[in-house]
Design goal:
The protein has one domain (24-168). 22% of the residues lie in helices and 21% in strands. It has three helices and seven strands. β6 and β7 form a beta hairpin. It is globular, with a radius of gyration of 16 Å.
Length: 170
């Protein structure tokens, strides 16, 4: 079994304090959100684009969302497996359950520059603003972010042999 994808010792998560907006962000979504709301619409976009049909790329957050919640790579150090990713970034209980059953996607993207992100209001149960209930740093983009082929996707799930992760092409 390989170690944590983002470095660190498995199961050892740093206690972090809020900091400036990073240049690279990481959005963690459950498998069902990944396949239905990101992967499939992206494939439709690519198909339309290949035959010169004008089609707008899909977004990282659901339509109408105020922005995209994301974290940084330091917050993901020591995290191993889908349920740990979901817990660390403070996904809701339904999304955590989906991650345990079906895995989750970690989407790396360039944060719009100049940083168009802010520290969101603290979620119920969070110890401080800018930190999720799971202890990861957290920001919210101002508006949605369109998917681009420069994004990197890591998919993680659990098998009978334990956690595994692999890169998915966009």
């Amino acid at each position: 079994m390989a170690g944590p994808r983002f470095g660190g010792a498995a199961g050892s998560w740093a206690n972090l304090a809020p900091t400036q907006v990073p240049s690279r962000g990481y959005r963690v979504v459950s498998g069902s959100v990944w396949w239905r709301l990101i992967f499939w619409p992206w494939r439709q976009y690519l198909a339309a684009h290949s035959v010169n049909i004008t089609f707008t790329p899909p977004d990282l957050a659901p339509p109408g969302a105020a922005g995209v919640f994301f974290t940084d790579d330091k917050s993901l150090q020591g995290v191993l497996g889908a349920s740990d990713f979901a817990s660390r970034v403070g996904l809701n209980q339904q999304s955590q359950t989906e991650c345990q059953k079906y895995g989750c996607a970690i989407i790396q993207f360039d944060v719009p520059n100049p940083p168009q992100a802010q520290v969101p209001v603290a979620a119920p149960g969070a110890k401080q603003q800018g930190i999720t209930v799971g202890g990861a740093r957290e920001w919210l983009t101002q508006g949605n972010v369109q998917i681009a082929d420069s994004m990197v996707v890591v998919y993680t799930d659990t098998t009978s042999s334990g956690p595994r992760d692999f890169d998915l092409p966009l």
